[in-house]
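Input set for joint prediction.
Command: fold jointly, output tokens.
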Amino acid sequence: MIREAFGIIYAAEEVPDLRELVEARAVGALPVGGKYRMIDFGLSNMINSEIRNVGVIASRNYNSLMDHLSSGKPWDLSRKSDGLFLLTPFSLRENPGVYRGKVEALKSCLDYIRRTKQEYCVLTGSTLIFNNTFDEMMRFHIDQHADVTILYQDIPAADHRGDRFAEVYLDIEKDGTVTGIELNPAHSDLFARNMETYIIGKDTLIYMVEESFAKGEYQFCEELLRNNIGRSKIMAFEHKGYVGTMRSVAAYYKINMDLLNAEVRDELFSSKNRIYTKVRDSVPAKYTMTADVSGSLIANGCIIEGKVENSVLFRSVHVGRDTVVKNSIIFPGTDISEDAELENVILDKNVSVRARNRLIGAVDFPVVIRKGSVV
Amino acid sequence: MYRKKKTVALLLAGGQGSRLGALTARRAKPAVTYGGKYRIIDFTLSNCTHSGIDTVGVLTQYRPLELNTYIGTGQAWDLDTITGGAYVLPPFARVTGGDWYAGTADAINQNASFVDQFDPDTVLILSGDHIYKMNYKWMIAYHEEKKADATIAVISVPIADASRFGIMNTDTEMRITEFKEKPKHPKSTLASMGVYVFNWKTLRHYMEKDRTLAGSTHDFGKDIIPAMLAGGERMFAYEYGGYWRDVGTIESLWEANMELISQAPPLNLYDDPWRIFARNENDPPQYIDAHAKVTNSIICEGCTIFGTVEHSVLSAGVIVEEDALVRDSIIMSGTYIGRNSRVLKSILDEEVLVGEGALVGADPVDALTGALGGFTAAGAGVPEGYDPNVPITVVEKGARIEKGAVIEAGKEVRA
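tokens >
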């Protein structure tokens, strides 16, 4: 539908509250939902919108991200013209170091942006899980003659107080015009949470980024867009449906558990818009005589001899005999030996749990075991 | 363009595999599903890749559509290289007219110019009908060491089964002295695996002679090999000791699948350096519901299980509804098993719909009452929980089993 747009996925977000999970990887490379990586959702939404030119901005620890994206073939982005562009850190005369914000990152990528042949830019991030095309948003953007359209999620007032992770809320008029932008609003009744997803004309984007950067601004929404309110036509468009925002370990845990819910799973995975990922040549999962699995997502390559309840198991996980895995998320290549007990646990890649070990976390504070640990 | 290759592989994938009945009604045998996510041809193609052979011609003839689509550029097997590749070779027309492939040797002979462009020393002739892992590199090295004109891979079979195979008699040096296709009174137990290495020039010579020979069936086993033996060529047997299964019948296909489920499967698919590649579909992980029960089974991604699955192999995207029972069965991708239904010792091809309360694979005696017959010793705790005497029920791709229908064991349901 929207071949006239190119995409940028800003995969340089810093999410310190994901702690150990992002120690050695970019958020975009974080495994989620049994076989995906966070960036799969943004990329799939792009290609399901027929966007065929996607730049991925990476900043720190992008090794695993590059590994995952490779040539872009799994997303059909290995093309003769356009396709996938990995935009790794690029130092400027003004700044030789790490990006201080999205504006600076975009400034570093202006060469790529200028070279694109498409008229519009769909800019999104790698911390969001949702399944939707940008088609309707684009139609809205064009119909409204907007300069910038911001995708938002309607958050019930009751959810406002709780986690505070640098969330931006929009003040919106009835027709969708954005009149205010607030960061972590303490005393307002704003309900529209910015999903860090924007449609913006290519030339407008270049102009705004250059202007904003020249003024010493780094933040895209809180600075660049806020300072353009009243000068430019900034509109908001609502995404109706499931959104998972990867802000913390607790959020990570909750999002994976949400996928055990049939409604969420159907919306994300049974839609005609598929979520694509890099698929490995794994053997189908094997359940032995003693296997007892309920309410769980299991990826290929797993061998299950024990009990798995309400959990998400990634590729090639072994669950030994008499072992109980409950309410847990187990990353690829993990080996859980016999007679162990795990509850509310997140095991990162290639962890080994020895026989008869017990690891019990709390629902709102799951135990996280680092990549490659032997417990 | 000159692109020399030491060895070119030619994979004979044109056979119908008529003994697989409904499963090969619309596809060639190498495209039949095995082990949940694989097609039979994946084994041969993966063997080629792992053996360092990157040029593979796949000769198709019978119902090639599904197979051609499946092979594509060969990318799934890492065969889409700059100098190599997977080439699908169907019969083609010439100025003087066109011919179907009259036999295995004729198929190769018609594609001699394809082989010639690589100017190979040896050709590796394979079939896409078998489940095995083999490093062809060692066989080719053996062929060179023996200064052979032809080398035939053999496997030792029980003497009782020997009359079903092409049987080799050899001297102490493993030089073949006699070859008999399906002998009534076999003198040896060394059976041909359908894997041959030929010196390309020698083979070309014999194929050319055979082409115009009256009465020839243009078959490797029946014509070319006996002619080469008669011509005094150096022909050796290369003995293979690993797992090898011919899954040419419903029974053998079913058994080979069930072998994968057993406690210590004779075929190890978890072998990292010799991973079997397959075309991977983009399916979400499998979901096993809170009330589901899955034991002793192999399940692929994209499946959703609400009912009970015992001792079965399920391909991608199968849905087993609440209170349904699948036992001792092979269920291929996209099949839907309705509520309260039972599927017993059956092979359900792709996209079959089993209606609510239906019974597939009923013991004939109990068919009328709908009782669960013939499976008295089955169930949890019995690893091989099937009565070996109950015949296998087969349901063709896309067939619909009506609500409450009872399909007798051993029946073949066509779409």
